Amino acid sequence: MTADTTLRARFAALQGAPLFAAGGGTPLEALLTEQAGFDAFYLSGYAVAAWRHGLPDIGLLGMSDTAQALRAVARVVDIPIVCDADTGYGDVIAVTANVRELEAIGAAAIQIEDQEWPKKCGHMEGKTVIARDDAVRKVAAAVEARRDPETMIIARTDALAPLGIDEAIARAQAFAAVGADLVFVDAPPSKDDLRRISEEVGGLLVANISEGGLTPTVPLEDLAELGYGFVMYPTSALRVAARTMGEFLAELKASGTSVAWRERMHGLDGLNEIVRLDDYLEVDARFAATPVPSA
After folding, report:
1. Same domain assignment for residues 95 and 146
2. Residue 108 in contact with residue 1, Cβ under 8 Å?
3. Buried b vs exposed e over 29-67: b needs ≥16 C-beta within 10 Å?
4. pLDDT digits (tens, 9 = 90+) for 96-111
5. How many domains does the chain have?
6. Residue 222 class from Cβ within 10 Å (0-12 exposed, 13-18 middle, 19+ buried)?
7. Which end of the chain, N or C, is less surrounded by CB atoms within 10 Å?
8. Transmembrane ranges (predicted)?
């Protein structure tokens, strides 16, 4: 893992300020996130399901889908990639194998959660979680499994909704005790809950902002004051894009022309710039001008 892709180095450089990440499920979102200057890209399981497969986040995808999505993103960006690995796709043996595979593909951090399978988006109703001891064993296995000490392990608990905030905090504390680098209590429904989690868990904490979900949209500076070290917007770009595409396609079907939208879309040159066409053409031109030695 290079210095550019090391999440630990980014945290160190921020000197206590929160690391700010945007997320999605595709390489194009990752490129735009990098070009916007975010600290990291969060590869969201929800976004992978929706963007790449047109499916809801209810446990319909598996490890191979996550690995394929990560490989596609890692191919095109240099900023650290935080990979949502759902439940780790099994117990400690599967967690061990899958952490090593995702690490080898290019994940700077790997997140696992304590839901029962099939899991659900953390802001949906009806979630269930595995026993605390089983969850802690899986986190400990993930920590032990990594081969690169720079790889960070994020341990998430979804226990707040089904079992209450006391249990969620107890799990977060236990995850930290077995070596998780960051802990993540998902879907706290109020700023008071966010504050209590910070006060009682400490360490590097994750705040997940999903507009329309259970957690209020608290500004970055307020989350920093509350003690959150990693703040992410994992699916906001996806939801903006989905709404905009739906509106465009409805108007295109109704009017038969895209003229009214011309100033609201990239031209071909603009999209080519995002995907760095000139970088590839430069390689082609450089080698075309290089004499080939004779045998």
Report:
1. yes
2. yes
3. bbbbbbeeebbbbbbbbbbbbbbeeeeebebebebebbb
4. 999 999 999 999 999 9
5. 2
6. middle
7. C
8. none
Structure tokens, 31: 């490129």
Length of the chain (residues): 295
Closest Cα to residue 27, out of 16, 41, 11, 9? 41
Residues 53 and 176 in one domain: yes
Domain ranges, residue 281:
257-288
Question: Per residue in 50-103, pLDDT tens?
Answer: 999 999 999 999 999 999 999 999 999 999 999 999 999 999 999 999 999 999
Provide CB contacts within 8 A for 77, sequence distance 6+: 27, 30, 31, 33, 34, 41
Mean pLDDT for 256-282 is 95
Answer whether residue 251 is part of any domain. Answer: no
Does pTM top 0.85 for this prediction? yes
- Shared-domain flag, residues 51 and 166: yes
pLDDT one-digit tens code per residue, 179-200: 999 999 999 999 999 999 999 9
Average pLDDT rounded to a whole number, residues 146-158 = 97
Q: Are 186 and 197 in contact (CB under 8 A)?
A: no
